[in-house]
Design goal:
CATH architecture of one domain in chain B: 3-Layer(aba) Sandwich
Number of helices of chain A: 10
CATH architecture of the largest domain in chain A: 3-Layer(aba) Sandwich
Order of helices and strands of chain B: HHHEEEHEHEHEH
Helix content of chain B: 40-55%
Strand order of the largest sheet of chain A: 2-1-4-5-6-7
Radius of gyration of chain B: 22 Å
Number of domains of chain A: 2
Number of helices of chain B: 7
Radius of gyration of chain A: 23 Å
Largest sheet of chain B: 4 strands, parallel
Distance between the termini of chain B: 71 Å
Strand order of the largest sheet of chain B: 4-3-5-6
Helix content of chain A: 40-55%
Order of helices and strands of chain A: EEEHEEEEEHHHHEHHEEHHEHEEE
Largest interface: A-B, 23 and 19 residues
Oligomer: heterodimer
Strand content of chain B: 5-15%
CATH class of one domain in chain B: Alpha Beta
CATH superfamily of the largest domain in chain A: P-loop containing nucleotide triphosphate hydrolases
Chain lengths: 371, 200
């Protein structure tokens, strides 16, 4: 799938702009605070109906303006999709080929984004990694979101119950009903996560191997607080989860918290056997995240039969030449890519790459170079 | 700012406390009552006052009633060996409309929800267990909602009732009648798949 045309009005520092990107590779270049990322935001908005920067969508509307619109035209394998998004301070209208819709304009996210904040995925808190796993890979399974929602609700209720028990307002036996549900949803959730990792780890290893010119072996390991030997069936996980909960019941009541389960799990990356969280360099972190993003693109292709659009915010020219070339090898001719850069690079990284360079100056495309 | 006189403001305020009534609807109701013939307002006021003073909970099942027992519990034609457990009196209305259930009910008046401080002790569970003592009940249908809390409540009750050797069942989840598979969401469809039945 690729974006053929983008028309925006009143989006942050853009009053009116039409962008007609190249089918393959596009560069938004310019100094800081000129509006490069705002264009990525507009593309992301067209694909997902949401911003990647803010929950408060009225922030995207230009200062002292009371609406914005983004009209975009996508070309997919099977059809043309015209997405019209109109945003008022408290209202959003998404129209797809003339029909009002709710949710994803394209029926799937349709975009993979890599911004510098994502580097925290390797070294940051477990919460960040879980969220990434749930949002980006969980969406391949229709049941995942449902299970996660139910599971999280059970955890909240159960924690409250633990507190009631600690303060002698409830009997310990009442906990059983929450244990049953925690294990039921938790077992299925953990099973799906293991499934994701089973499919993902060979792919990740292959991509990373390639990105690092065969210098690094990347391993990703799921660290379960349940410490269950895999492979295990949903029923196995359920039984072991139930047993472990009984063992730690006292501690859980003391702390009024559910101490084990998928909501406490984590995963770690190992480069040539060493934990990247502790030993990984900046560059290695970047490469790991890039590996994840590429694997996500390939996963989408497998599920949907269509490549998503790739957005790289200040992370493309920050890669060394070999990694840039390796990345291009994975996406060139298949994935429409948008990158931003502050440099004045005149696409000197690959001679036969078809690319379009947009020079951005204070909310306007000042110049276009095509080759 | 004051847009209304004191008594009108008070009336609107009282209406907007009701569930499902926002400030605009409250205003509309109040203004209607002020221009309608006086007996409309008087009848409404009487109906509310009378209902509130005469209606109470059925001593047996917890449904609304004017006497000691509700019309279902005092109906001799209903089978007494099957009890359907629901969250609220309004769920009885929903079940009754099916005309497919001829047993008795038991209203819990809520579900277990530690978040809101509701434990088994706050629900009418003791009353249910007392009903089961000595009574020839063969089956309990757990008809709480298919939410996390409704399921927890059902599990809790099943744990209490199963030792009494009474059949405990849970309402099926799945496809709505007249639905088209194509339009069913994935969660509902997978629930329906879990609860599939042998056809003979």
């Amino acid at each position: 799938m690729y974006l053929k045309r983008l028309e925006i009005a009143n989006l942050r520092n853009y009053s009116n702009q039409i962008v007609e990107p190249n089918e393959f590779f596009n560069i938004f270049s310019g100094s800081n605070a000129q509006g490069k990322t705002n264009l990525l935001e507009a593309i992301y908005l067209s694909c997902t109906g949401k911003s990647f920067r803010t929950q408060k969508e009225s922030e995207i509307i230009s200062w002292q303006k009371n609406f914005l619109y983004v009209n975009s035209l996508f070309e997919t394998n099977t059809r043309q999709v015209e997405v019209k998004i109109r945003l008022l301070p408290h209202k959003k209208r998404i129209e797809v080929n003339g029909v009002l819709i709710k949710g994803h304009p394209l029926g799937w996210p349709g975009v993979v984004m890599f911004k510098p904040e994502h580097l925290a995925l390797v070294k940051g808190a477990p919460l960040e990694r879980r969220r990434f796993l749930d949002m980006e890979f969980g969406s391949f399974y229709p049941r995942y979101g449902y299970l996660l929602g139910q599971y999280n609700r059970v955890v909240i209720q159960r924690n409250n119950m633990l507190k009631e028990i600690k303060e002698n307002r409830e009997e310990v036996t009442t906990l059983q009903v929450w244990n049953t549900q925690l294990c039921r949803y938790g077992a299925e959730l953990l099973f799906l996560r293991m499934e994701i990792f089973r499919l993902l780890s060979p792919l990740i290893r292959e991509i990373h191997h390639d990105l690092t010119s065969a210098e690094e072996e990347l391993d990703v390991r799921y660290l379960s607080t349940l410490k269950i030997n895999m492979p295990a069936s949903v029923d196995d996980i359920y039984d072991q989860f139930t047993k472990k909960l009984q063992e730690i019941a006292k501690e859980e009541i003391k702390r009024s918290q559910t101490l084990i389960g998928p909501h406490r799990d984590d995963f770690s990356f190992y480069i040539n056997g060493k934990d990247a969280k502790t030993y990984g360099s900046q560059g290695q972190q970047r490469t790991i995240v890039l590996t994840l993003k590429i694997s996500q693109i390939l996963q989408w292709y497998k599920e949907i039969g269509e490549y998503p659009i790739l957005l790289l915010d200040d992370v493309f020219f920050e890669l060394d030449k070999n990694r840039r070339m390796a990345l291009l090898k994975w996406v060139e001719g298949l994935v429409q890519t948008f990158v931003t850069t502050t440099g004045e690079e005149r696409i000197a990284f690959n001679n036969n790459l078809t690319a379009k360079n947009f020079f951005i100056r204070s909310g306007k495309i000042a110049d276009i170079e095509e080759r | 700012m004051n847009y209304y006189t004191k008594t009108v403001a008070r009336l609107i305020d009282q209406f907007s406390r009701l569930p499902g009534i926002g400030p605009k609807t409250a205003q509309r109701l109040a203004f209607y009552l002020l221009v309608a013939p006086p007996e409309v307002a008087a009848n409404l006021a009487n109906a509310i006052a009378e209902a509130r003073t005469t209606v109470r909970y059925c001593q047996v099942c917890g449904n609304f009633t004017e006497g000691d027992r509700c019309f279902i519990c005092s109906d001799g034609r209903r089978s007494t060996d099957i009890i359907c457990v629901v969250e609220r009196p309004r769920d009885i209305v929903a079940m009754e409309k099916t005309k497919g259930f001829r047993g008795l009910y038991h209203v819990l008046h809520g579900v277990i929800s530690p978040m809101e401080g509701v434990g088994p002790g706050q629900l009418r569970i003791k009353e249910l267990m007392r009903r089961l003592e000595g009574a020839p009940v063969k089956e309990i249908i757990l008809a709480t909602n298919p939410s996390v809390e409704g399921d927890a409540t059902a599990l809790y009750l099943a744990g209490l009732i199963n030792p009494l050797e009474i059949r405990v069942t849970r309402l099926a989840h799945g496809l709505p009648v007249g639905a088209d598979l194509e339009y069913a969401d994935q969660i509902t469809l997978s629930k329906a798949l879990e609860g599939r039945r042998v056809i003979k």
